[in-house]
Amino acid sequence: MAKGKEPSDYLPLSESTFYILAALREPMHGYGVMQKTEEVSAGAVTIGPGTLYGAFTTLQKEGLIEMVREEDRRKVYQLTTMGLEVLKEQVERYGLMLRYGREAAGKGNPGGEE
Amino acid sequence: MSGEIFRKVKFFGAWQDEKEEAWLGEMAQEGYHLNGVGFPLVYEFRKGKPQREVYRLDYTSLKKKQDREDYFQLFRDAGWEWVGEMGGWQYFRKEVAEGETAEIYTDNQSKIKKYQRVLGLLVILLPAFIFVFQQREGQTLLTQILEGFMFLIMLLYMYAILRLIKRLQELKEDS
């Protein structure tokens, strides 16, 4: 883990990083992360292998995920405690955004037109 | 697989990977499927059925065997077939349905990192040219020709670097 870094220092997470961290709440290999992301985002977000490989390397270096074992020549990763903290912090922020956004979006048409 | 093999020499600069990908896709649609690549600039095709295939190029400087295995495993799992390597560029192929496409990089941030790796290599190689031009003793016709040739290559390198910087700027503006 990078020394002296707070969970909030990693925010905001990119969309793909968010889905990767969320998927790695459970131990999973790369292909699992790709499938899970496509499934929970209803196909709106896909993560290509180039993007995922780079993200794994970076997140591991930052200490947000760790390799827990190897299965059929595939590395299985999981969130670290710090990774979980970062995820929680991001979800907290999304919560605020969502509340504010719903309020703003629910105000009717701009300029009060029909 | 059967089908006759034919080779083609074609130049694409380091900044033209998307153009190269599109060209390989067009070749596949005409029934020429990339069978392998070789240094320098040789493309080997196998004649077969016309097919919709997406080609994508990645640039990686992974050295450790384990890292390379992990890397290729991820691509395989995602349905990409590795076709070959040329100067650090990895050639991947995926069959897709009509009207569909596929990407190995799905966000701008990771695409930026790819071009930064390419740029990093070109910048590292530049001092080598400067070294060559400092060795200007014993001028003969041959060394002059060689030098002229090296000079052209260096110009090409500089141009590639500028184009890559421009590409990076465009990607950063998009994100």
What does this structure look like?
The complex is a heterodimer of chains A (114) and B (175). By secondary structure, chain A is an alpha+beta fold. Chain A has helices spanning 15-23, 30-40, 49-61, 81-105; strands at 28-29, 65-71, 74-79. In chain A, helix 1 (15-23) packs across helix 2. Chain A is globular and about 60 Å long. Chain B is an alpha+beta fold. Chain B has two domains: 5-95, no CATH class; 108-174. Chain B contains four helices and six strands, in the order βαβββαββαα. Chain B has helices at 17-29, 65-77, 108-134, 141-174, and strands at residues 5-9, 32-38, 42-47, 53-59, 81-86, 89-95. In chain B, a hairpin with a 2-residue loop joins strand 5 (81-86) and strand 6 (89-95). The chains are: A alpha+beta (114), B alpha+beta (175). Chains A and B meet through helix 2 and helix 3 of A and helix 2 and helix 3 of B.
